[in-house]
Amino acid sequence: MSRAPEAALPRPKVLHRSIQATVHEADGAVEWRRRHARALLLGDLFVLALALGTAQVIRFGSAAAPEVDGLGVTYPALGLVLAVVWWASLQIHQSRSPLIVGHGPDEYRRVIVATFRVFAVMAMISLAFQIDASRLYLATAFPLGLAGLLVERKLARVGLHRARTRGAATTKVLVVGGARSAAQLTRWFDKHPTAGYAVGGVWVPDARTPIASLDGFVGHIPVMSASLDFAEALTVSGAGAVVVTDTEHLGHESLRDLTWQLEGTGVELMISPNVLDVSSARLHLNDVSGMPMLHLREPQYAGADRFLKRAFDFVGAATILFILAPVLLVTALAIKLDSRGPVFYRQERVGRHRAIFKMTKFRSMAVDAEQRLDGLRALNESDAVLFKIRHDPRVTRVGRFIRRYSIDELPQLLDVLRGEMSLVGPRPSLAAEVEQYSVQMGRRMYVRPGMTGLWQVSGRSDLSFDEAERLDLAYVDNWSITGDLMIMLRTVRAVTRGQGAY
């Protein structure tokens, strides 16, 4: 394996002084992180105090709270202790760590785990010391506290993402490695500004001659060769973080030296495994005879056929049908009054293992929509596989409204109850679309099609076929119940905004 020239990595003391100056220039994102961490510290404490105080009012009203049986302290004192322990548990579980805040579901998972462990410890202590605390008080405090914490974290994340979208809380990154992988990483960060990183420069330590530019980013991203040492490359990029990708450009010993030289500088050091659309739950770092190895677990689609997934679908669909029954009745009446024809529209789709089933929707088009399709193909705004036009003349007045807010999809809950569909999964495909699928795309047939999925919460009809294909495959390979819950929560936001629906 090649190794960067020794001249490319300066002596630690010289590098340390150079980097400190660079970090000082790029400390805007660091300040944002500190402010966000302080906001979470105070926000968590406020939410817990509010939840425990509300539980006390619900249990005892405005009267003075009595002492806790077997403990000898009043409920306000118990609430104070619980708030401190709960708040500390959130810290112990690193739910405020900048490495997970604002990224994926792990922040919420840690909040939930921290809460349940506090509750479990409270139950064990009560049993061991025969403390008879009010069950109503505890049964109110913990659900309220957990719900409040999750809402608070969501609001904090929204604020952080908005700031990052404006570039106010974004850390510039120096990519150490090859120009090709750096271009891929740059496009990824450009597409996901809420991640909080933007590539400010690329340093190829084993390149002897200057590199003109990064492919696709002419004049935008400086690409530096070994003619500059690492400290100079970091200064040019203005980066507060370093991402090492394609480690053969650096070598094992030089990478180790780099970690030593960045020690105490405040500059983040990350190593990109160059894998996309793979859930972190499938990645596991093992020590193999002193060598760290990143193990990639096999795809998770088999779990999507198990009892837990089916139970989740059945209970969820039945509950949603019960809650939204008035909406279904009003929609059916509006469709009947708006245009002639049936209330429901059933169309053949391809399901799990390529089984054909009839998907149920509220009718949103005129009854002769299929006959008029050939005359509209020239207006197709999608690709060769999907047919989509924004202002389809076949759509009725009621149809435009129910499509915008995905109300037309609600009868698919009946298909979920029958076991032909799932609440979350790849979008149900037409037979004509399946005929054009690649071999890789055939993997989406391993699971039931879903009412919603990554494709819907990521752009709906605005997505190209290739983008929808990538998201469907990512869902199949990385399936989990937690992921399904997150997609359903994101679906509510996507539907209420009405974006990408036509």
Automatic annotation (TrEMBL):
The keyword Acetylation does not apply. The lineage of its organism: Bacteria, Bacillati, Actinomycetota, Actinomycetes, Propionibacteriales. It is a multi-pass membrane protein. GO terms for molecular function: transferase activity. Residues 309-496 form the Bacterial sugar transferase domain. Pfam families: Bac_transf, CoA_binding_3. The chain crosses the membrane at residues 39-58, 70-90, 111-131, 314-335. Belongs to the bacterial sugar transferase family. Keywords: Membrane, Transferase, Transmembrane, Transmembrane helix. It comes from Nocardioides pinisoli. It is found in: Membrane. The keyword Ion transport does not apply. Its main location: membrane. This is Sugar transferase.
